[in-house]
Amino acid sequence: MRLSYIFNAVSFVFICIGLVTLLPVVVALIYGETSSILPFVITSATAVLIGVFFKVLVNHFITKDKKMTDIKKSEGLATVLLSWLIFALIASIPYLFFDFSVVDAFFEGISGVTTTGATILTHYNYPHTLFFWRSFTQWLGGMGIIILFIAILPQFAIAGRQMFFAEAPGPTEDKLTPRIKNTAVALWGLYIALTVAEIALLVYFKMPLFDAVCNAFSTISSGGMSPNEFSIAGYHSLPITWIVIAFMFLSGCNLALVYRVISQFKWKMIFTNEEFRTYIGIIVGVSVAIALFFWCTSNEFSFINLTNILFTVVSLMTSTGFACSDYTYWAISAQMLLFIALVVGSSAGSTGGGIKIMRALIVFKYLKREVIKFLHPNAVVTIKLDRATVAPEIISQIIGFVIFYVTILLISSILVSIIENNAVIGFTGSFSTLSIIGPAFGSSLGPMGNFEGLNSLTKIIFMFNMLIGRLELVPFLILLNRDFWTLKK
After folding, report:
1. Of 96, 250, 326, 389, which residue is the least packed, with the fewest Cβ within 10 Å?
2. Which residues make Cβ contacts (< 8 Å) with residue 214, sequence separation at least 6?
3. Sign of CA dihedral 145, 151, 157, 162
């Protein structure tokens, strides 16, 4: 791993994020919150100065005519990892100016940039500027800051391939165009268009503009942080609830697939996609099962109840974490049905988290193949997805991913259960943060709860989980490889 390449990338990350940090200053000026200006100016200046320092430092390692044209995979992964750590660090700094402890500031900042949506807020008496920052960091983190940099910075676009797939790891390398930069531009274009469309619809149905912007940022990024203390339930509007359901659903789809369907007007394409059909099937199946459960156990059932059920299923499956009702008061049977959606997660190539539907499909097909081979040892059974054979190395990567995922989940669950003396918090909190969902189960960590009362060590473990979950393990796993630490100029 060559330090010159890493320093060059890191310098741009600091400078760009530092400049972006000035945007909340505009919000502070609009709402006359002058006391909120200084925190973001200081944060921005600090980030830019550090970036300039690294840029000066890198000149001692590379000449001006040497570019990042031959960046290696390990260097791309390292750049992605460092970029997210830098983004999380900078995003956390403003919270320190609003009487957050150091641990709580980092927790809220990391939760934002990883689009987890877990919060330590116990009240909402903060300025508009801070709520905008919470949602804006989610929006930047949703599509991925490296993909943004590839779209706008030549230095990143040149070596974009390695960093693009390090930023958005998954079972397949799903490109829209032969050039990675064009792919990044297309994805960000769709991302922005969806955001603008949701803002317009929310405003049309009487949501205040500021709230519409923040909620749209959090919806499209699958983040779930709302400026309203009671999340979407606080707006008491059925049209708004259905708008959010629709955009959460779209955010949980493979955005590359959505882009192709819209740009090529081939609407049948989306229904021939096996992952999408599974996505819809799970949402409908779990929602109908919960609805039938309530129908059989309650004397009252209405369209509003059905809306709340569908909203909750979509919110949790896409790892958004918005709430229109408190599912922790539902019967245990209904909550266990919800857990199915949580485990599977959203589509590959979406802004959501979790194991991802494509991985779950391939693992299921792998297990099915092993059963067939056990019964028929001489049978040749291939694993196919959308009628295409899945390469053995992809299957091995997915099996390895699931094993590491479960291992990290078990370790963090055991540690947190010991620290908090509570197995429910230990398991559901670990699962929620590793899958970047946000709310967990139990009254304290549910959709109307918060993480503020947890032990500081628990919060640190959850922060670690959030970063791992957002990066989908790969960049962190390379840290365990001794070859990664072989440094060169």
Report:
1. 389
2. 131, 132, 134, 135, 225, 226, 227
3. positive
